[in-house]
Write a structure and sequence with these properties.
339 residues; alpha/beta; Rossmann fold; five-stranded mixed beta sheet; 14 strands
Length: 339
């Protein structure tokens, strides 16, 4: 049976303690310091994940014992950890490694570094972007919102998920605002040129976070959320806020605006329950899209570096959606379930 590996990590200090079962008497910040100095390691073997095609795969979880968040600035340190995890996956003899959420936290130079790996590596950004697209499409339909007459803002559009979302939504929205920090403006200029060349939506670049979300009917928050405190009051009344970030900071503040529809993007429902032996905090059968992408590619024996970098071919979104449907994996959107 073909095997895969998937890199897992906590996204907060509190989750770090729960994830690695550190004693409660140890402060979260101290546990973080201790675990930063521990090398990645294999956690569990995942046995026989099955699809409706009666195909199965197995794999491993490889733990990165540190909190990866936008507060982590040391790209060299992060890359050293990731490269060490890749080495473990290679020794395990797996056919594919999924990087999960940590893929968004290193620079473009990181992609050059991991190309030296002996196994294919995928970040999961393609399937993550598809969950954003399908979730918003279903919510808009449920709310009776005409996307062609809507303004959509993407916060962190220079990221892989942001770029894919911008290009995909340019086909169906009336006005598109792409946002990132000023350092990545050149990337947004290139992205706008791509979209304008397609002759689709009106596109504008806005580096000011507050102005970007102003009067937007739909706002997508990707892994590249700026280091500013969002005033939830800046969101338009009755807006749709889709959180595709690592820490889900926007979704976790959903109680502050009862009129806004908050979407927790990036979640997939499997056809059958699998024992992962890791507390993900998610309901039964629900897994992150990045993990689902790794599993689906393994089920298809499509052992290629599928999602890498921000300029991924847009056709891959439709392809991974077709693969998911073939194996019975569904985008999980409780606010707008499939009929």
């Amino acid at each position: 049976m073909k095997t895969f590996a998937y890199l897992i990590h906590p996204t907060s200090q509190e989750q770090l303690k729960d994830f690695f079962k550190t004693p409660n008497i140890i402060p979260a910040f101290f546990a973080k310091i201790i675990l930063r100095n521990i090398a990645p390691f294999k956690v569990f073997r995942i046995h026989d994940v099955r699809s409706i095609q009666d195909r199965g795969v197995s794999g491993y979880f490889i733990a990165l014992p540190m909190v990866l968040s936008q507060e982590e600035n040391d790209n060299i340190f992060i890359m050293d950890k990731i490269l060490a995890a890749i080495g473990i996956a290679e020794k395990l003899g797996v056919n594919l490694l999924g990087l999960g959420g940590c893929a968004s936290l290193y620079s473009d130079k990181g992609f050059t570094a991991i190309r030296t790996a002996k196994i294919p590596i995928t970040s999961g950004s393609v399937f993550n972007a598809w969950t954003v697209y399908e979730a918003i499409f279903r919510i808009a339909k449920a709310k009776g919102l005409d996307l062609k007459k809507s303004k959509l803002a993407i916060i962190g559009a220079a990221s892989a998920i942001g770029s894919l979302s911008a290009r995909k939504f340019s086909e169906c929205v009336g006005r598109l605002v792409i946002n990132t920090n000023s350092d990545a403006r050149i990337k947004l200029e290139a992205l706008r040129e791509q979209i304008m060349h397609l002759g689709q939506a009106e596109v504008e670049i806005e580096t000011d976070f507050t102005l970007a979300v102003h009067n937007a009917d739909i706002v997508i928050f990707t892994d590249d959320i700026p280091r500013v405190s969002l005033d939830i009051r800046d969101l338009k009344p009755q807006a749709i806020a889709c959180d595709a970030s690592i820490g889900k900071t926007i979704f976790n503040r959903r109680t502050e605006r009862g009129d806004v529809t908050f979407i927790n993007a990036g979640l997939i429902k499997m056809p059958f329950q699998a024992k992962f032996y890791v507390n993900t905090g998610l309901p039964e059968k629900i897994i992150p899209a990045a993990l689902a992408e790794t599993i689906l590619l393994s089920l298809e024996e499509k052992f290629v570096s599928y999602s890498q970098g921000a300029n991924v071919n847009l056709d891959k979104m439709e392809e991974i959606a077709d693969i998911a449907a073939r194996h019975g994996f569904e985008v999980w959107v409780p606010e707008a379930p499939l009929l």
